[in-house]
Q: What sequence folds into this?
């Protein structure tokens, strides 16, 4: 995936992503938290491998499905959407809906970007791209958890 493709995907889903939280109860569980996390993960990916365009592209969209996984009610409480679909499935669906095809390596990286916490990770041989995406995600989350903006509004 090219970075310009990721930018087009972000633009297409701009309204959905605008207020989306990044999680229900953990990091960046605030309005707009998802966009902050995606940008932080992209910046971390640039630090890890400045020349890997595919890594930067995936980092910038790896969690976009959370915009359809979590909802914020009028009291600013975050909960799962109904019916609940995992954010990884929503992410891949949104990329496909935007008209983009991911390679097996790109799908693998998205599927296992949670590293050892990913379902079936103990059975997978993680690719270099998956490991780098996981590292960027963890670096971003660590930094986010150290900032005040990760607390509920």
A:
């Amino acid at each position: 995936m090219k970075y310009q493709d990721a930018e087009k995907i972000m633009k297409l889903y701009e309204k959905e992503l605008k207020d989306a939280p990044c999680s229900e109860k953990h990091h960046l569980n605030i309005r707009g938290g998802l966009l902050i996390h995606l940008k932080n993960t992209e910046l971390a990916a640039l630090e890890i491998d400045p020349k890997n365009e595919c890594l930067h592209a995936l980092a910038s969209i790896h969690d976009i499905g959370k915009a359809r996984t979590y909802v914020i009610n009028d009291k600013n409480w975050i909960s799962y959407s109904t019916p609940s679909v995992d954010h990884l499935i929503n992410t891949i669906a949104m990329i496909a809906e935007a008209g983009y095809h991911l390679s097996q390596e790109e799908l693998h990286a998205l599927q296992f970007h949670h590293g050892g916490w990913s379902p079936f990770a103990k059975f997978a041989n993680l690719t270099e791209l998956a490991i780098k995406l996981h590292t960027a995600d963890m670096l971003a989350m660590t930094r986010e958890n150290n900032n005040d903006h990760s607390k509920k509004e």
User: Anything to note?
Assistant: The longest helix spans residues 128-145. The mean pLDDT is 87. Strands lie at 70-72, 78-80. Helices lie at 3-12, 14-18, 33-48, 53-61, 66-69, 87-97, 104-111, 128-145.
